[in-house]
Amino acid sequence: MDLIAIVGLMTIIYTLVYMIFPWFLDCDLNLAFHERFGKPISSLKDKVVWIIGASSGIGEHLAYVLAENGCKLILSARRETELERVKNNCLQRNANLKSCDIEVLVLDIRDLDKHEPAFNSIIAKFGKLDILVNNAGQSQRALWENIEISVDREMFDLNVFSPIALSRLVAKYFFKMNAGHFVVTSSIAGIIEVPFSATYCANKFALHGYYKTLGIETLDKNISITMACPGPLYTDFLAKAFTGKSNEVS
Ligand SMILES: *[C@@H]1O[C@H](CO)[C@@H](O)[C@H](O)[C@H]1NC(C)=O
Q1: 64 is catalytic
Q2: Residues 15, 102: one domain?
Q3: Which of 66, 97, 213, 228 has its CB 3.0 to 4.6 Å from that of 101, i.e. a possible disulfide?
Q4: Is the dihedral of CA 206, 212, 217, 221 positive or negative?
Q5: Are residues 117 and 216 in the same domain?
Q6: pLDDT at residue 1 above 90?
Q7: What sections of the chain are H helices per DSSP?
């Protein structure tokens, strides 16, 4: 077989693999490979994980999986009763966890002045922080031309600037420890454009810009960054989305 035929054959195989496997998978090939052959979740046992946006959806269910695997958790969001509910569910799922292993820390991520006291209270209580999960955020349904600039500002504040401010604070600590892991809930809308969510897409693209730059600046450091890019999910995430107008939810 000559070179061109080999390249042609490999192209066909590559295309077939990428056409066939997605029918059986709930994620891309790279993630599926790591899920099957990578480190098991149980290797996270005893890690201290701070989840921002832990009261519902992805954050809530991530808390359950991490609790089952013996992580210590700090659950943050605005709604205390919801966080207490998530905490109780976590404790039910792993009888080895004690109540003091799961901390409810009420926080509005937009309240930047609260970041440092919140972070300090975690270090005082748990002695360390291994993983920060930036999962808070709100989506949008609006026509591009109707979005008021005040909505763009509000959304960038909640979905971009607030998690970035918190990450900068935590980054300094991670650098000092020469260890740490940022997990960021992005979206499929952080990779390709999704209609009727212009600001939301821009928010997610911006997050990729910020964290990819951090990734380059920390090549010589022991810092991991994971951008999670889920597609459509069964959560109540769209129950309260931004629209084009301020003070309106769809
Ligand atoms: C890198 O970080 C991991 C935890 O994220 C830690 O287990 C490991 O010891 C660190 N490596 C170095 C060289 O500091």
Answers
A1: no
A2: no
A3: 97
A4: positive
A5: yes
A6: no
A7: 3-20, 29-37, 57-68, 80-93, 115-126, 149-156, 162-177, 198-217
